Hints:
By secondary structure, the chain is an alpha+beta fold. The chain is built from two helices and 18 strands. It has three domains: 2-120, Sandwich (Immunoglobulin-like), CATH 2.60.40.10; 131-230, Sandwich (Immunoglobulin-like); 238-276, no CATH class. The chain has helices at 2-16, 234-259; strands at 26-32, 37-39, 53-59, 62-65, 77-79, 90-92, 101-107, 112-120, 131-136, 141-143, 158-163, 168-171, 183-185, 196-198, 207-212, 218-226, 263-268, 271-276. β17 and β18 form a beta hairpin. The longest helix has 26 residues, at 234-259. The protein binds 2-acetamido-2-deoxy-beta-D-glucopyranose (NAG) (2 copies). Residues 142, 146, 150, 186, 190, 193, 195 line the site of one 2-acetamido-2-deoxy-beta-D-glucopyranose.
Amino acid sequence: xxxxxxxxxxxxxxxxxxxxxxxxxxxxxxxxxxxxxxxxxxxxxxxxxxxxxxxxxxxxxxxxxxxxxxxxxxxxxxxxxxxxxxxxxxxxxxxxxxxxxxxxxxxxxxxxxxxxxxxxxxxxxxxxxxxxxxxxxxxxxxxxxxxxxxxxxxxxxxxxxxxxxxxxxxxxxxxxxxxxxxxxxxxxxxxxxxxxxxxxxxxxxxxxxxxxxxxxxxxxxxxxxxxxxxxxxxxxxxxxxxxxxxxxxxxxxxxxxxxxxxxxxxxxxxxxxxxxxx
Length: 278
Ligand SMILES: *[C@@H]1O[C@H](CO)[C@@H](O)[C@H](O)[C@H]1NC(C)=O
Ligand SMILES: *[C@@H]1O[C@H](CO)[C@@H](O)[C@H](O)[C@H]1NC(C)=O
């Protein structure tokens, strides 16, 4: 009797299969390009192993099976069940913008769980927080701007400078104008590093700069260029010193004269001598 009900229980349990948590709902997930994301999907009972299940992605109105063996997801997807057979979550790594879209998880006959994945090309670190930076004339400066994920690569971004007179942002180019051959991007090692290196600084380089990815993603920097003492030309500096010494000599001479107007004290090779001027 007991055995029968036990078998009955198991039988019911097996026939039930996997019932998806949040079945027929849609989860909205955002991730960064270059990073990885876990698309969650699991059975109500984590010990249930579904007889059939799959992950599919919608591409042009048809659902295509996701495989780690070929295609877009080759070697980038894996099932991570954390030792629970009922955990059907999918880990996608090295995300690209093309990975964004609609996914669904299907298990036994319990329906679908939908996941809408948004892959951001680059979300800027400290976006919207103005920075203040200063440097000396003649020197160089790195205007910082980088994606939270260093591997992500924005499709398009620009560096701009505020033209005060017209109150408009103008794109900076190393090919022409004020910045010709003086600016360069340093993203060689990490595509998400959009920082701008500017050299041979002049006073005119001071002002407002903007690293812009479009939308709300931008960094604004107030850049101040101060005149470096080292950049003062040597000749005028020497000249100032000489003039200053002359003034000291003149003052000393004048004080001496007012004390004793009739005499000038001077040295000769033979020793001290006093000349009287009448
Ligand atoms: C499923 O497995 C992943 C990876 O181990 C884990 O992060 C997640 O929490 C698990 N989900 C559940 C509901 O246990
Ligand atoms: C970006 O690149 C520059 C130059 O190589 C480096 O100094 C800076 O630390 C980098 N920034 C980040 C956040 O990696």
